[in-house]
Amino acid sequence: MVVKAQEVTITLKTIQTQANDVEEYDLETKGELFQKGETLYLRYEEELEGQTVKTTFKIKDEQLLLTRRERALSSSLDLRPGQLTTTRYQTQYGALYLEVNCLKYTFKRVDEKTGQLKATYELSNGQEILGKYKLRLQFKA
């Protein structure tokens, strides 16, 4: 089955808090939106530190899977409200595993080409919280 992708505009805001340091990241870009079964896929490319990174959001009502891939680096973040999951960051030096605690996740689809999601989560090394993150994403055709 061939799934036709639709071009959408993506607006993403991320707030990262580590210790007393707060960083905000804003992005507006074009991407592709398509659906397979009950799962919605949102893909786009972005430039980070001089590298092109392919980012995919795999969106379900109760789960968000965020995957980023660049030549030597990759990560996969599994967000499920109320559940601890493990994420893997692959670097040129090896893999790093962190625990993910999804504190809040909501997804609202306005119509076939418009929606928004919000997620709040913490990353830890199993002993201490390394950072707290807020992710806000909107897409529209």
From TrEMBL:
Domain of life assignment: Bacteria
InterPro entries: Calycin (IPR012674), DUF1934 (IPR015231)
Pfam families: DUF1934
Entries under Gene3D superfamilies matching the protein: 2.40.128.20
Protein name: DUF1934 domain-containing protein
Organism: Ligilactobacillus faecis
